[in-house]
């Protein structure tokens, strides 16, 4: 069996019928999973992906599927569709947003809960109404026990301390990481060494704080890197999945994994970004 050289990491936030930014419609998400399934792709677990970075072989057609923040629509729509097509995903949870309570309905059941668009989710979280827009611990436990979603750290409050209180940002981040670890352990019985940065911001000091807190695999929003055997686990690249068809996402996955086209594509995109920013 041939093995993967580069493993593309897909980044999602919302799967929802509510239109808006960083949202994939339910129909497009199913089409994307259908494309992956029909073309023989396999989603890796966090442990398998960590093994890949450490040099252990994984199937050639491997991807890692990730979700950020932990929105309710991940339970209502993404969870049943991932389960239907036999895929798993990692969910980076803002731990202060999740509350106790019974599991709510998901697609295929009656009385589905409202899943607001991204702007409304942000507003309700700020207003202390996160239970209306985020997964509950009961839902997280079901998804994790069934092997559909793994739950990992995305800090405790999702605050950009480098903007809000830059002089004390490191102290705040150390507390965020400690709170996230403690909350995950208390509610799910354990915590991994995988962590995702809010809004993709990190710096060398943050990386050292994360390592000191027990996190080794750190996920960025850098779209134009390659996750190869021997790559730095503190700099994991991901690309945002757009609200588009499965075949379109499939082309992006193939480019990311290609040993020749992938590096050329990444260099071109980074050159365009630098030129646009006047660098």
Secondary structure elements and their pairing?
Elements: E1 9-12, E2 14-15, E3 23-24, H1 26-38, E4 42-43, H2 46-53, E5 62-69, H3 72-85, E6 89-93, H4 118-126, H5 137-145, E7 149-153, H6 161-164, H7 169-188, E8 194-196, H8 204-212, E9 217-219, E10 239-240, H9 246-257, H10 261-276
Describe the structure.
Helices cover 41% and strands 13% of the residues. It is an alpha/beta fold and 279 residues long. The protein has a single domain, classed as Glycoside hydrolase/deacetylase (TIM Barrel, Alpha-Beta Barrel), CATH 3.20.20.370. The strands form 3 sheets. Strands 1, 4, 5, 6, 7 and 10 form a 6-stranded parallel sheet that branches. Strands 2-3 form a two-stranded parallel ribbon. Strand 4, helix 2 and strand 5 form a beta-alpha-beta unit. Helix 1 packs parallel to helix 3 (72-85) and helix 1 (26-38) packs across helix 9 (246-257). The radius of gyration is 18 Å and the shape is globular. It starts with 8 loop residues before the first strand and ends with a helix.
């Amino acid at each position: 069996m041939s093995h993967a050289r580069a493993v593309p990491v897909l980044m999602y936030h919302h799967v929802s019928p509510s239109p808006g930014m960083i949202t994939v419609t339910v129909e497009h998400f199913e089409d994307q999973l259908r494309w992956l399934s029909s073309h023989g792709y396999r989603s890796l677990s966090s442990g398998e992906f960590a093994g890949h970075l450490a040099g252990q072989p994984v199937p050639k057609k491997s991807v890692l599927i990730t979700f950020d923040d932990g929105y309710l629509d991940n339970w209502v729509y993404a969870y049943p569709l991932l389960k239907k097509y036999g895929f798993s995903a990692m969910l980076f949870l803002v731990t202060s947003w999740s509350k106790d309570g019974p599991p709510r309905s998901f697609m295929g059941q009656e009385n589905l809960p409202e899943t607001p668009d991204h702007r409304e989710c942000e507003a309700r979280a700020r207003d202390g109404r996160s239970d209306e827009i985020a997964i509950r611990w009961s839902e997280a436990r079901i998804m994790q026990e069934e092997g559909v979603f793994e739950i990992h750290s995305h800090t405790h409050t999702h605050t950009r301390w480098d903007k809000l209180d830059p002089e004390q940002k490191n102290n705040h981040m150390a507390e965020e990481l400690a709170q996230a670890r403690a909350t995950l352990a208390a509610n799910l019985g354990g915590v991994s060494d995988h962590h995702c940065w809010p809004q993709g911001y990190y710096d060398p000091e943050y990386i050292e704080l994360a390592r000191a807190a027990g996190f080794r695999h750190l996920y960025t929003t850098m779209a134009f890197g390659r996750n190869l055997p021997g790559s730095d686990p503190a700099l994991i690249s991901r690309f945002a999945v757009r609200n588009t068809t499965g075949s379109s996402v499939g082309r992006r996955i193939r480019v990311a994994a290609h040993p020749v086209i992938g590096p050329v594509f990444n260099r071109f995109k980074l050159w365009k970004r630098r030129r646009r920013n006047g660098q």
